[in-house]
Amino acid sequence: MTSTIASIATIQLPAPTQVLTSSWCPDKDLLVVFYRVSHQTKMALYKMQGSKKWEVTIDSRQIGRAEVEVLGVAWSPDAQSLAVISNPPLVSVHSIQTGQVVNDIPFSQTAPLKLANVWWFREEKKVVGNGIPDIFKRGDSTTGSALAILRNLPLLDPMEDDATPLNSNDLFAFQGTRNRAAPTARTIPGSIASWPAFQQRRDDASIAAQAQTAQQAFPEEADKPDDTNLNSILAVADTYGQMHLFLEGSYLLGTLGIRETTYPRSVHKLREFFFAHIGSSAAGDADVVLFPYAAQLPYLATRHCREVARVSTAARELAGYAIQVVKDMRSAWFGTETQGGARLLGQKWVQALEERQTKEFGQEEAYGLLDLTCLLTTGRSSEALMDFLGSGEHMSERSMHKWETMMTEALVKLRDMAEQRVAPAVQRLHLLLQEVQGWATLPQYAVCNINPPTIEACLELAASAIILSSWLATTARKELLRFREFMKWLRYETSRGNATGDHPTPRPQHDILEVNEYLSSSLVVSPIDKWFLGLAAPIKRTALGVPSMDTANLKVAVKKAREALAQWDRGTQQQPVQPRDLPHIERNLDSLLHALASRCQEVFVEACKAAGRSAVVLRSPETVPVPGEAATDLPTGPAAPLVRERTVEDDSKASDAFGVLASCRAFTDRRRVHLFPSPQPDNFVHCLAMRPPLVGDGVGTGPSYLCLARLQQGLGALDTPPTIEVAVFECSVLEDVGGAGHAFELVDLDFFDGSLLVIVYRHPEQGECARIATVGYADLLYHTIPADGYVTGTTRGALMRDVLARVAGGQLPAVPTPIVQSRPLGVAFKTGAVKLAVNGRTGRRVACVLDGTGTVVEVLDMEAEEDEEDVEDEDEDDADAAEEGPE
């Protein structure tokens, strides 16, 4: 059963649309397009059959500038995410399930930086060693490492998401969250936002993940475990000769500096080696050099790269977790813009008492605490206080219950969060920092530039945060005890003041010392306030009574222990420990955690750039032409030259594509035809399809050609003379055997796979619609061009001129285009430019064509079964006949 080209769907788009070369998802029948609606750039995902799955807005992330120019898209190796680059400079990674942004990477605006291109490379899996498993490896973690220890610890409770929509229980519960403000996303501190880390990786930090409630557009792909994206590299090129690398699309690996005012038009990755074909930022595709810029990043080949990335991610998650917990504690204590805090209730109660003393009882100066203390110690109350305790406004059972509930919940929250969340999170962060401190002494991590004094400062801040968290839990526990005694006393005095002769006076159940302590130190101004106010300074252990390590040594400590043991045998009593006066110690836990996060972020930002610092340039083009200096003044627009490229990997596909000549072309004159050698290890074949610039309308003013070239490149070709082989097609169709070719206008083209090209062409003089066709290029006779005159700065435009000159001089043959199969497109493609996008993967084999107006996309199956096509045509004919009916 033969195959043919079949039309699947014609999609009518709402606005002029942009289709990119990489718009097709490699592993799924999905197509992504971009268009502008109401001054907003939209991205939409369509199924191959024409149905839209979702539509999202591409945000510029800049206030006052809504213009967004989408430049490229790259799909992740697992086909679950796609990275979109746009100007103003922004890289946004979207989920294909919903289209929502899962990670965005804004770039600095200090310089007029513009992004240019994007690629996403999967890791080349390579089996190394003698097959004996590493007994010290447990998954990705090494036994005894900080990450391995964290994996064995209990998971910390997840944070509540403020952006989670309210459900019926929250709306109608008696004590639910029906009164809370509209859900808003949490504000991420700047140090956490710019911290290099993987996206949503909380398992290494031993933090429980939140339950996923979002509805997925592709539920069949939700539960499939896949490590295809593991160690993949997202590469983003800008117009200033830099290529920014991100591990798994989120963790910054540094910048590979290539050359100023240039950027790579294509990049091939081979393990830790990068090969980039570069050209001037303002030049066209024809002014790109033939031979690539080659660089090696040795750090990528080591396990240390991923270890540092995972530790950085775990440290970021723990630091952000601790900061967010403290923020929630502060909101519970001090309140927010929409809700009051528990701390203000005591102040308001005392202010109401003093207001009654001054306004209703004529006191010039109000001393509410003095009257309360007098009532506690003597049992006698002033007239104003007696009236206040008997009033129903502030002393009703409902008001008392609300006060007691809010204070109890707030203090319990402070106690539990400080003890069960903040302290364990910072302890785990301290463990990670200790491992980083050990890395600073190892030569394997020297390229990370870890500064030992900075790590020492981070460890000191982390230790202080642990002490403050435990101290806060103890203080909150004492505060809760005293507050409960205060409420017992308050209820006792209220009952005693309202008692009559028929009801006996209730017995007191409160502790007078605890009540007095709460009145004097907690009712108006609480000691807990110091954990959220003041300066951020590390705690000196000597101020807490811990002996200094500078004055105490092991010999002195052993002497003191023996003296204490001797006194204990003699029956002497120990001296009572006097409490220390600690009000002078700064204990702002909130500011301390922000300072800790800022210092840690500096360490990991410097460490993440190790891959870029380890770069070794293996070869760089001698010259790169710039606009005005290039020998070609090439036209722009539809008449500009078309250049498409494809890299054939060093595998069986390359051998099949280029080794077929050995059996069917053995009789050819070997002085003119060169059989391309089989790809060597660490080499790849770079294929080019180039249409020279059109003259006039491209047809009728002279022959038009399609040049195919292939170059063997890679590590094995760095020190060898370059080999260039070309084949030339006339832009014509051979209708009859032995007859003349019928010229056509080549509108667009692209590589489909290792053996076929897809082209779109027209016959303008016949007035026909454009046609889409496949052209075989694997079985051609490629002619070797002497490479003596070519240097590493030679461009594709120079190669095209050389090839055309050889064709005109009869040194190279030009044959009609060997079209395998073709199909006419719709009426919308009769005139104007078109844009072609293809996906030649096995099992997909689809293409789409966008018309000149940008509003119609035709989707085609490039390998449909011919019988099915005939059946579809017959069904259409029957349907047309049924609609016409009998005459």
**What fraction strand?**
15-25%
Number of helices: 18
Rg over CA atoms, rounded to whole Å, is: 37 Å
Average pLDDT metric:
80
What profile does the largest beta sheet have?
6 strands, mixed
SS class = alpha+beta
Which outline best applies? elongated
Counted beta strands = 34
Which residue ranges are poorly predicted, with pLDDT under 50 across at least 5 consecutive positions?
Answer: 162-166, 171-183, 213-218, 627-632, 652-679, 696-701, 871-887
What is the subunit organization of this protein? Answer: single chain
Query: Share of helix among residues?
Result: 25-40%
Report, as a whole number of angstroms, the end-to-end distance: 39 Å
Question: What are the main properties of this structure?
Answer:
single chain; 887 residues; alpha+beta; 6-stranded mixed sheet; 4-stranded antiparallel sheet; 18 helices; 23% strand
Describe this protein's structure.
The chain has 887 residues and is α+β, with helices and mostly antiparallel strands. It is 30% helix and 23% strand. The chain has 18 helices and 34 strands. Strands 20, 21, 22, 23, 29 and 30 form a six-stranded mixed sheet that branches. Strand 32 and strand 33 form a beta hairpin. The longest helix is centred in the middle third of the chain and has 46 residues. The chain is elongated, with a radius of gyration of 37 Å. The C terminus is likely disordered.
Summed up:
Helix content is 30%, strand content 23%.
Topology diagram in text:
Blueprint: E1 3-12, E2 17-18, E3 30-37, E4 40-47, E5 52-57, E6 69-75, E7 81-87, E8 90-95, E9 101-106, E10 115-121, E11 137-138, E12 141-142, H1 146-151, H2 168-172, H3 190-193, E13 233-238, E14 242-247, E15 251-257, E16 262-270, E17 273-280, E18 293-296, H4 304-334, H5 343-359, H6 368-378, H7 383-390, H8 392-395, H9 397-439, H10 452-497, H11 512-521, H12 554-569, H13 589-608, H14 610-613, E19 616-619, E20 642-648, H15 652-659, H16 661-664, E21 683-691, E22 705-714, E23 724-730, E24 732-734, E25 741-743, E26 745-751, E27 756-762, E28 771-776, E29 783-785, H17 796-808, E30 814-816, E31 819-824, E32 835-839, E33 846-850, E34 856-865, H18 866-884
Parallel strand pairs: 23-30
Antiparallel strand pairs: 1-34, 2-3, 3-4, 4-5, 6-7, 7-8, 8-9, 10-13, 11-12, 13-14, 14-15, 16-17, 17-18, 18-19, 20-21, 21-22, 22-23, 23-29, 24-25, 26-27, 27-28, 28-31, 32-33, 33-34
Helix pairs in contact: 4-9, 4-13, 6-11, 9-10, 10-11, 10-13
